């Protein structure tokens, strides 16, 4: 099977606007933009398991259907099996392409793409396996990201944890993107997307070698079905409205202590990205708390990596 010329993949820290961007591009008549099926990253982590010749199609199908998020593609197992057995893939990348091609076909689209924020920490592995992938990294002011997470039952549950999580994801994504170069990686700030949607979407269309289509900014007219099918509808109500600026932000909602703590942890990254930083120098209590939270975060990361290696 000949792959499509460009495979758009949208990444970023959660709660950064990736769903908004995904919904805009999914409104393009030629593109079916998947919403977090997460199976691609999962099978890529198990790449050695699928390195056989001939390609172990049955094992691959079992693996993707064990991933509960794969159901978001709404592809029945018989259709996937028929597609893969009718045109047997030679390798893992070919199998993944076949699944996405089937998804695009069922959405009456020519192209497919994937929006999965978590892939921001898998950019090198995905880029190596799929040379046609182009990554769009959505970046939002981390203080608003932290506040948004604290309203949800998943993800970071404190300002310090939100700062560490945001800093880690954004830093890793930008470092991987710098290695890839501007032909395969670009960034868009959420704030720019909502303030200048047509300008930013046209710029991203150019990056993805796609033609701009006016339907893209009418995405909200057909968002109801997506919201109804989502695993947490309240988290995605915003896509039912056109791009909106002037909403209350961290400057209105965060205490001075929380602002100082976030900026003690992630202020350098905020500055690098051009965001306002209020705290020039935190008090010793805030600095001490930031050091403690950094140490705890590092310990958790080491423990998680060790468990991952043992399981792998």
List the helices and strands and how they pair.
Blueprint: E1 7-11, H1 18-26, E2 31-35, H2 39-45, H3 57-66, H4 77-86, H5 92-106, E3 111-115, H6 123-129, E4 133-139, H7 142-150, H8 159-180, E5 185-189, H9 190-195, H10 197-207, H11 224-229, H12 250-253, H13 256-272, H14 284-311
Parallel strand pairs: 1-3, 1-4, 2-3, 4-5
Helix pairs in contact: 3-4, 4-5, 7-8, 8-13, 13-14
The main sheet orders its strands as: 2-3-1-4-5
Low-confidence stretches: none
Strand element count: 5
Helix content: 40-55%
Q: In CATH's first tier, which class of the domain at 7-30 and 110-245 applies?
A: Alpha Beta
The CATH architecture designation of the domain at 7-30 and 110-245 is 3-Layer(aba) Sandwich
Compact overview of the structure:
The protein has 312 residues and is of the alpha/beta class. Helices cover 52% and strands 9% of the residues.
Please explain how this structure is put together.
It contains 14 helices and five strands. 39% of the residues are buried. The model has no long low-confidence stretch (mean pLDDT 92). It has helices spanning 18-26, 39-45, 57-66, 77-86, 92-106, 123-129, 142-150, 159-180, 190-195, 197-207, 224-229, 250-253, 256-272, 284-311, and strands at 7-11, 31-35, 111-115, 133-139, 185-189. It has a domain at 7-30 and 110-245: 3-Layer(aba) Sandwich (Rossmann fold). The radius of gyration is 20 Å and the shape is globular. It is α/β, with parallel strands linked by helices.
